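User: Can you fold this complex?
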Amino acid sequence: MNPSFVILLVIIPALAGLACVPLVNRLGVCRIIGALGFALNLVLALSLLSPDRALVTQLGGWAAPYGISLVFDAMSGVMVAAASLVALACLVHAAGSLPDPAERRYFHPLVNFMMAGVNLSFLTGDLFNLFVAFEVMLMASYGLLVLGRGKAQLAQAYKYVLLNLVASAVFVIAAGMVYGLLGTLNLADMARITAELAARDALPAGFTAVAVLLLFVFTLKAGVFPLWFWLPDTYPTCPIAITALFGGVLTKVGGYAVARLFPLVFLVGDAGPVLQQIILVGAVLTMAVGVFGALAFRTLRRSLAMFIIIGVGYALFGVAVAQPGAIAGSVFYMAQSMVVMAAAFLACGLIETHLTTDDLRDGGALQKTHPWLGVLFLVVLLSIAGLPPTSGFYGKFAIIRDALGAGFTWTATVAILAGALSILAVLRIWCSTFWGPEPAVLPRDADARAAALARVPSASGYAALVLLITASLGLGFLPQGMVSLAQSAGRQATTPGAYVAAVMGPVAPAVPAVPVKPAKATGTHAAPADASHDAPQPPKAHLETHPKRPARTAPTPAPAADPAAPTVPASPAAEEFHVRLPATPLAAAPHPAEHRP
Amino acid sequence: MTFVMAVCVAACVGVSVYLLLGRDLKGVAMGVFLLGHGANLSIMAMSGSPVLPHDKGLSPSNLKAAPVLGKHVPDPALAGMVDPLPQALVLTAIVIGFAVMGFLLTLLIITNRSTGTLVVDRLADEPVCTTRTDTRSEPFQPAGALS
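Assistant: Here's the predicted assembly.
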């Protein structure tokens, strides 16, 4: 498959959004354009997905460290596919649930632009481009957030808007600092340089601080513990289709950014254990706060919003464990969580049409009148909690298994407890809406309640819900394809060399610009052709694609002292492109996962 | 020059933090804009040669050249060229900041029209629920207390 197709995943929603702008008053056309675009994206992403292939396209044909790379590998591909599915379902649901005036207020262009930004932030391989993608996504989401202009919506929107604006400024500062420290903004190039520097124990001062700044930005978007408070206030104020889209997709972008950047670039050398501890503490507190919030809130929307936060906690926990299996679990869990959280909010929308409220105290006995909605909602809730036949199980299982294997006993215990309590929380929600006794209704409200119960919700609402639930059940009962994709993503995340080789090309990663200075002193390695050297010389390709593995047996060999250090053909192109890089071959970089007792 | 830049960034960020902590949303918006300017200035301060150990075979004179030129500066007249990338980054950030400023000011105007205030304390902190018009402020009445 031509890797250039990857760019279509960004271009299709962007073009669809542009096409919707002049047609914004013709809702039927807009709906068809949007639905076709998201369906096309979904099909394209699914057809490009493959566990053992990373499609890389360099925008404009500029080579990797200077141009912008788009990387479609197992991790980003799974996220793009899940996000497209969620967007399609939310669009279908919105066609039936969103009031027409609100839909005409540029709902369709904004959704399409937001998905263009979301897909770009999944695919991009460049730190500053990630900032731009975030901004595209955020600008559209600001618009969607205040769509309809409810009073509460406007009042609560400031939390989201202002926090994200501050986070954007911090992101700009952090990106500038990364460029100042490392001289590059390409993620693969950053990974290569930090691995080299960590191997030489020469990480620049302030490296950890920059990583923490970026962690602040991403965890704010994801809703991780100290920065979670805006989420249950802002998301529930929107119309329900938009809440479902936000709750499914937006937080996962932050989680994905952590899962992509930190194992690849920042969890190296001295910085690794420090950052790992920070992420770990954040993840554990996020799970705890999320599950208690889900138990405590009295409205359905807020309770569901807290389940988003629990999911982010699990995903981050897997990243902090930094084992291939745990990261695979995280990727699986994030994709699954996108689908089921969106499904839960869409089901919440259907329930609200019958209850006229999302207050849990006004619910109850809905199972009598709407048994099928109750069954669908129960399936969604159990998928969120991760009961074994449903799709939430594998992700949590893989994360907790690897965490226990790697010695994270206490944190894994908290994760298991959070899982148990989240089952309690979902049962509380389901019982108080469907199973429990009928609510105490004032006599004057009885007629209104009966009328609301008899209200027929739109068919598109059910269609969207069934679409998402089918996908979720498919993940639960036929998980092989998804599991192999997730495991491939986990392996890629823990071996940054493969990502670097895929993005920078087969030659670029291991070629230093200039021969190593101490090697020059010995006089043996300066010649480009070194075939006569008697030391067994590992094939270059091996070093390029598996640069991390020798670290275990020979920790951090000084390149000069190693007689087998590969000499490098001094190609002029390589000198041109790598003048700013340190001049040792990509040597053993200790990955934090390998040094754990 | 670095010192001047550092003072400018510190002034921008300091004032913006003061404004961000205020209660008037107009001031908060100004704080956000100033924070953006501080961020842009800090990128300019970061430009130049990277803080990598330069001693491994790269002479400092080569590193001062803009990276797009590569190791061999094709024309001596270009030797003094500064690194253009941070300026491109700042330009992008300024454009995005401009769009954000437009949105935020619009949001302020709409909020003022719809709620009549721009002070955070007076913005209604109602229970979050869009589908229900009456807010449930009265305490929950158990079933036995009815009728």
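The first helix of chain B runs from residue 2 to 20. The CA atoms of residues 115 and 123 of chain B lie 7 Å apart.
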